[in-house]
Design goal:
By secondary structure, the chain is an alpha+beta fold. The chain has seven helices and eleven strands. The protein starts with 5 loop residues before the first helix and ends with a strand.
Length: about 280
């Protein structure tokens, strides 16, 4: 973490935060060059994190239960026509959360919508995924969320980076910058505002060994973890265990998710889902 001093890093982050990302001349290549020197230290800040279960939600557009698990998996490349928070156009990523409440809260379902939530479990329950240690330290004590994060002390290179006061301050600056980008509220049609977070993911994934990224869930006031996994990681390490189908209802001016159906069997070969109703 020696390449930029604290003053230069602060100024660089200010410049990045003020960019008008809607401009055509603010290209991906330009941003990669600018962002790369800011987040380069994070390439060494990788740890193991155990997420025994993850949850992914999707709105049932026609209100019918999804017939196959592929309908709840990451979408086909040709269907990805816009930038996402951490994916480029036509790039597959698996967005999920550590609790079904997080998954349902992130999709902006309206009253009357039918929502399916898929639960996936690790094939090897104790497996730790390789993720950057950007936001994870604050989550270990959250009730109801099972996350086992390796202490930074287990990773000699990463631990040595944080030994000096200046490096701790610089890491905090980088972390706050990445959090602000990860938590951006982006309106439909303004997906260009995802440019920075997409590039951050690309630079970090260039290591070649990351399984995913974790970031706070703004939908539950940052009291939960969103996870974006590579297709290889979700396919290799997890399997679907059940699908719950909810309808969002309104009772006494309060919104609730009411369970209306659930899977009884998921065929491990074809992916077909059988339901109670």
């Amino acid at each position: 973490m020696q390449k930029m001093n604290e003053k230069d890093l602060t100024e660089k982050i200010k410049q990045l935060s003020k960019l008008d990302l809607s401009k055509v001349d603010i290209t991906i290549d330009y941003l990669k060059m600018q962002i790369g020197e800011v987040i380069e230290p994070l390439l060494e800040m990788v740890i193991g994190a155990n997420f025994p279960k993850v949850y992914r939600a999707r709105i049932n557009e026609d209100k019918k239960s999804f017939p196959n698990i592929k309908d709840l998996w990451y979408p086909d490349k040709e269907k990805i026509k816009k930038l996402g928070r951490f994916n480029a156009i036509h790039e597959q990523m698996f967005y999920c959360g550590t609790h079904q409440l997080i998954a349902t809260s992130e999709i902006n379902a309206q009253v009357g919508d039918v929502v399916s939530v898929m639960e996936c479990e690790l094939k090897e329950p104790k497996r730790k995924l390789k993720v950057p240690n950007i936001f994870l330290n604050d989550y270990k004590s959250i009730p109801g969320i099972s996350v086992n994060v390796e202490p930074i002390e287990k990773h000699n290179k990463a631990h040595s980076i944080l030994k000096t006061h200046e490096n701790i301050k610089k890491f905090t600056l980088i972390q706050k910058f990445l959090e602000s980008e990860s938590l951006k509220k982006v309106r439909i049609g303004e997906e260009y505002n995802y440019k920075i977070s997409v590039i951050v993911k690309e630079i970090l994934f260039a290591r070649g060994d990351l399984d995913g990224l974790c970031y706070p869930s703004i939908a539950v006031d940052k009291e939960g973890i969103n996870i974006v996994l590579s297709p290889d990681a979700i396919d290799k390490y997890y399997f679907p265990t059940k699908v719950l189908v909810f309808e969002k209802i309104l009772i006494n001016n309060e919104e609730y998710f009411q369970l209306i159906n659930q899977s009884t069997l998921i065929d491990s070969t074809s992916g077909s889902i059988m339901y109670e109703l």
